[in-house]
Amino acid sequence: RLTPVAARLSELLGQNVALTNSCIGDEAVAQSNSLSNGDVLLLENVRFFGEEEKNDLEFAEKLASHADMYVNDAFGAAHRAHASTQGVTNYLSPSVAGFLLEKELKYLQGAVDSPNRPLAAIVGGSKVSSKIGVLDSLLDKCDKIMIGGGMIFTFYKARGLDVGKSLVEEDKLELAKDLEAKAKAKGVELLLPTDVVLADAKRGIGIKEICKSAKDSRSSIDDRRLSRGMRIRPIRALTLGFPNVGKSALINRIAKKRVVDSARKAGVTRNLRWIKLESGIDLLDAPGVIPPNLENQKSALNLALCDDIGEAAYEIESVAIGFIKIISTLNKDKNANISVKQISNRYGVDITKGFKSPSAWIDEAASKHTSGDKRRMSHKLLEDYRNQMLGKIALEVPLWN
Predict the structure, then answer these.
(1) Residue from 290, 281, 349 nearest 316 by CA
(2) In this predicted model, what pLDDT tens digit does every residue of 85-115 receive, in sequence order?
(3) Please, are residues 13 and 38 in contact by the beta-carbon 8 Å criterion?
(4) 231 sits in which H/E element
């Protein structure tokens, strides 16, 4: 939620910044309509709605109902065709770029069109497919292109290298080969990382290579610090990735003892924890995260609802909102075993109110049961569902002929 953002924005602007419970709905629109000149209203996170990234026009129209015009000043999000960045432009006029966006574009245009040579570009991201246009354009302008992020594994596999279970776009392997061929023909160096180590923590494969790579990096950094008259200090490294891929098991292998909890269930690691290794490296054990751009969000939601992944792997309020939406969709189907009366009586708040605004329902229920703490209320709702305190609710109902 954007509660801390609203508080910090209030400090920076020197005035109160109100925050809506939801980015859409009658309550939110009433707040925007009541604004006076100079007032600032922050809409709650648009990513709470799957329609945002799908660029759903109905959702975009609801967002647009807050305003008379649209200014996009978020350069880092301007390339995304989402409801809040592209969809709203169908309903608001004028729709324009802000001063910061204009500044960024002018800088980029000058840096790319009239650069100081040699010109190198660094391109990152998880997918080659989303960077085709960028890479093609840079091949005509750059002397070197350095590629990072998840897309490197598609290039590695295109070269015939083993990438294990790393993220690969199988249908873009030929594209990766073509891009490398174009770069070679134009005399452009296309550089991939050379220090990626493939490991299988559960079987102990690649652990020695990881330790050697870490020690080599430590030595190089130590030498650089000493040459500048600086003290040597531990290097800090982070384990980051999906839930249940063996990050904690990897740390235990590297440390050569059990220093963190490891289990088959995803989301076991709940907090950030620094692990001191003998090699002068501090390793941060971090919870795995299910990214919001996974293609099958429905399955991810069901895993969270059924407690097949731990709470450290997801944002609990979003899952609770998703649960209420499922109830709303299935409540008229008798095969789903949903009792609106039973749920409403348990919390003293009519659950059908949540069908229109799940976030507002959680807010009201939280005021009755958890002293206004929406996170605790979300946890309570999900635990009650898992323990069948709301009845034996089916998340999915088969289609009968």
Answers:
(1) 290
(2) 999 999 999 999 999 999 988 888 887 778 8
(3) no
(4) none
